[in-house]
Amino acid sequence: ALLSGVIFMLLIEKVQKFGPVVIMAAITAIIYFATGQFTVVLLLTFASSSIIAELIRYMFGYKSFTGNLIAYAVFSLGMVGSPLPIWLFGNSFFESIIDQGMSSSYVDGLRNLTSSGMLIGMIISTFVLALAGGIIGRSMLKKHFIKAGII
């Protein structure tokens, strides 16, 4: 969330209408699928977060930095869908990764790290780091891309 703020801000600056956030989520989902890390949970979180982010951009106005910043933070929460099955499916998730060949010591370590506090911390830190990434992205946009005439 921190690092992709530049890409997000550049994209939405260039395309000030409905759609670029959904396209960005679709591209990310394709990458996840191609690398074998795609799940239904990830699809649902990507789809819902990108649509909500697009609605936020629409409601605030496509040129609104505040709206775009909040939209980026919401969009970034879509990535939470990658580790979310750990909390959603619990023991069945752990059993499935053991069946896929993970060592029981790895699974035990993962199980020990899985808590409600960790999930809440992951969501909050993703949102906060996305806000920081969006601010950095806007700064880079003004400092480099606008000055260079790219935008």
List the helices and strands and how they pair.
Layout: H1 5-14, H2 20-34, H3 40-60, H4 65-76, H5 85-99, H6 104-113, H7 116-146
Number of domains: 1
- Please tally the helical runs, counting DSSP H or I stretches of 4 or more residues: 7
Order of helices and strands: HHHHHHH
Structural class: mainly alpha
- Count the strands? 0
**Distance between the amino and carboxyl termini:** 23 Å
Low-pLDDT residue intervals, each spanning 5 or more residues: none
Report the sheet with the most strands, covering strand number, pairing sense and barrel closure: none
The rounded Rg comes to 17 Å
**What's the overall average pLDDT, rounded?**
91
Question: Approximately how much beta-strand content do the residues carry?
Answer: under 5%
Protein name: Conserved hypothetical integral membrane protein
Keywords: Membrane, Transmembrane, Transmembrane helix
Organism: human gut metagenome
Transmembrane segments: 18-34, 69-94, 114-137
How would you describe this protein?
There is one protein chain. With 151 residues, the protein is mainly alpha-helical. It has one domain. It is 75% helix and 0% strand. The longest helix is centred in the last third of the chain and has 31 residues, at 116-146. The two termini are 23 Å apart.
Short description:
The protein is an all-alpha fold. The chain contains seven helices and no strands.
